[in-house]
Amino acid sequence: MTSVAGRAGGRTDERVAAGGLLRRLLIRPELGAVVGMLVVFAFFASQSAVFRSPAGIANWLDPAATLGIMAVAIALLMIGGEFDLSAGVLTGTTGLIVVTLATRYGLDVWSAMLVALVVALGVGFCNGMMVTRTRLPSFIVTLGTFLMLQGVNLGVTKALTGTVQVSGLRRAAGFEEARAVLAGTIQIGGTPFRVAILWWLLVTAVATWVLMRTRAGNWIFAVGGDEQAARAVGVPAARTKIALFMTTAFAAWLVGSILALRYTSVQANIGIGQEFIYIIAAVIGGCLLTGGYGSAIGASIGAVIFGMADKGIVFLGWDADWFTFFLGGMLLLATLANRLVRRYAEEVRR
Amino acid sequence: MILEARGIGKTFGSVLALRDVSMGVEAGRVTCVLGDNGAGKSTLIKILSGVHQHDAGTLLLDGEEVRLAGPREALDRGIATVYQDLAMIPLMSVWRNFFLGSEPRRGLAFDVAKARRVAREELLAMGIDIRDVDQPVGTLSGGERQSVAIARAVHFGARVLILDEPTSALGVKQAGVVLRYIARARDRGLGVVFITHNPHHAYPVGDRFLVLNRGTSLGEYGKADITRQELTALMAGGAELEELEHELRREQ
Questions:
Q1: CB distance B129–A350 less than 8 Å?
Q2: How many A×B Cβ pairs under 8 Å?
Q3: Is the Cβ of A171 closer than 8 Å to some Cβ of chain B?
Q4: Which chain A residues are closer than 8 Å to B124 by Cβ?
Q5: Cβ B185 vs Cβ B192: under 8 Å
Q6: Pick the CATH number of B3-88+141-251 from 3.30.70.3550, 3.40.50.12780, 3.40.50.300, 3.10.290.10
Q7: Which of A47, A228, A295, A346 has the most CB within a 10 Å radius?
């Protein structure tokens, strides 16, 4: 048995000195996404002058922002070991509630948004309760709420309007103020940028802080990594998961409100199919499908890649149909890269 | 004597899992609980750690009779248990695991700097040679994980440390490492209960030895009263003695 006293005396161990910085960079979950973002940017920027102009950047940051808000919330949930397939359609539900209440029931926009928030948090709470109480896979539980919300969105909209959309939010009281806050633009260097971009940055920053610098963040990693072990040391696992589902619902409310205020009308089928885009962005950003690992910044970068490809293909004059092909390729590459990086990170330390 | 069991018994339905077992845990001493599989070792430690309640005999903590309602109460009274599966999250770093569930706070935030520093200090104080507290627990060896779990229990104010077969899944060298940390915990004044079925692990570090067989006690011995050979013989019984002696001879 060698004595550890001598080695323990120094602050750093000789075994971490070499390659420590490189490895620390490599094991960051968002590394793959950062490399992907740089490659995608370099590709489109070299092909299109519009793409790299301030106006172009404002253009592709816009879809990145609304997707990014959702992807960050979904990333937290996935790190916590759960999925939410109802998140996409919930953006539609909240938008429909805001427009319907503000145009047909005389509420001002702010009150309508408040009601939509309460409903959204209720849906998130129900999702969380069902998952934690029944121990069923959240994939199935939220698939159920997804389908139910889809039916409600269409059914109620048709019953009220006879069509599949609600519109006319512009006439509602408080519209201009709410729009300025959530769906307006700000001038940066003479180029108008969507305010949603600021909300997205704020959501990313708060989520990163919670994840890395709060007890709740530690609990999120723990319940996703090994729920039994987390419970054994006193982590309130059910409470953490329910809060994560409610966070996702909150993000859906924010995005639903932004989109409703921007377009002043909401289609009853909006948001359907988006739930997988959120998961894809989170996975490109380094989240493990099995939970316990990932980052909020990574999910945001995944959303940026999505936004760049979405608009870049249009700038290049390509057929937009190629977009999903590109997205699928990115997803596969990201998953493979993440796996390699993680393996390297774990093996090299033995 | 911090913790003492007198004539403890436990039945599950018609099964007598434990019958009239007595043992004591002193500060700065290691009490080893030995026995083959099914001897009642886990029932005994589950009573000591509050998971089960005894239905015969008395349990005394600091000389007062207690009945532990659950693991949380045991923990609050300073009885910490490190189970084989350890309750650690492989993908999380050592310092995050160290404070999981009891994170130090600074305002609203998790005091990350303090957590890192204290985790490193506590591990060093136990003489635990972890390369980097930022590395995921999944990259540690089995012995290192046991050691971190022991250091965590010590840090969170355990007076009695119950270790459930900490060496059973480990190789010889790794087991030696864990035994050394058991000795360190003892030297820091904790009363240690060390459960094992390996007398070679128990004898070097133990001060008292309780041998269980089929739910009953074969006696509690001080180190002066029993030799390693006698302990092995007591545990194994006559039939396997010869083979075990052979093993023992090769190890020495």
A1: no
A2: 89
A3: no
A4: 8
A5: yes
A6: 3.40.50.300
A7: A295
